[in-house]
Amino acid sequence: MEACPDVLDALCPLHAILDRRGCIAHAGPTLVKLRPEDTLPGRDAFEVFEVTRPRALAGIDDLFAHARMRLHLRLRAAPRTKLKGVLVPLPGERGAILNLSFGISILDAVRDYALTNTDFAATDLAMEMLYLVEAKSAAMEASRKLNLRLQGAMIAAEEQAFTDTLTGLKNRRALDHVLARLVERGARFAVMQLDLDYFKAVNDSMGHAAGDHVLQQVARLLVEETRAADTVARVGGDEFVIVLGEPGERDQVAHVAERLIRRIEEPVFFDGRQARISASAGSALSWDYARPDPARMLADADRGLYASKAAGRARHSFAAPDG
Questions:
Q1: Is it true that domain 172-318 has CATH number 3.40.50.920?
Q2: Which Pfam families match (predicted)?
């Protein structure tokens, strides 16, 4: 029975008909698509394909000796696509049909040669497999994007939980975490309580919108006048806490407080009106304690703050540890 190329082209488009000498007499349309620049008919099959298993096939006689056995091949020219194949001899020693498939290389082949469903037999499940792979890839990509959004939302929620919404500073919850970490590390740090003087008068005379504006301006300058390693938190209406990490010595902490107080005394304008406030502060130093305790240090800094207010406001005081 003669091989009918038209039938083979439809049933197994990735094939080659070989004559008895091992030359390609006909190439299926998909095989032609893999090598559009080559004229395959008339070429020796071993010039086009390299047989990688079984090994040591030297020529057409060796190939025919392995008829109906599974063959592993690859194209000799780049891209060196891997193929699976089986050789079926034609009756009367008139040659053979070499039927090929991509096997697990199908994804690379589709990418390298822009293959479509028309390049496969109608009964070939390869395209269905590709659709499943694409669907899985799409689902995985959608899952990845969803996870990124969820992570972003989680980070935003965590950030919001630790942030004062009006000023953008850390809140009391965040402050507690910062202090706990510093104590755990055994770091040297200072805790400064700062309270605005005459802030109630601004709210009463100019309104709460003006008061909010003043708080935002104070928050901005507190951040400007401290280092990235320091922490500025709003813990109440007009109450702030500054944690200075590795602040140096006592006089350096006092210098920071004096600079903050001077900046806060600068007038703030809102709707063309001037708001004037000042600030009182008190500090506690971790090295004044045998075992620093955040709650105790905050309480001692608060005592220093009220000592500043009692002494006339707009000043800074250290409070000795309350033993």
A1: no
A2: GGDEF
